[in-house]
Amino acid sequence: MGMHAVGAFSGFAVRDVEQARTFYSDTLGLTVADDRGGLRLDLPGDAETAPSSVFVYGKPDHEPAVFTILNFVATDIDTAVDELAAAGVSTLRYEGFEQDDRGIARDPRGPAIAWFTDPSGNILAVVQPD
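== Putative enzyme related to lactoylglutathione lyase ==
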């Protein structure tokens, strides 16, 4: 690589780091560690097929993206959405997607998916592969 990179990692902003810590740790059940003034979220999965962590940093004037920034793969999307609902997380509704009463879109051309947000408005999703 031309810039002599020896690795890479992804990151995203949140308005409030402590609020994000609570959401990602307590609500979503991820392992969260302090990292350079922000947080490191340890992501589930095989490090060879997906990043093993993501960096979350505070930006008080953060404006969330209008696209999904993080996808969580589930073997059973119905159970995953039920667990999110039990934790007080609501799914998002999008025009043009047929979603069931729990907010799960099941397009035969792609994976089943449900979107939700973190406390900073970042769009996240739970996906069940075909």
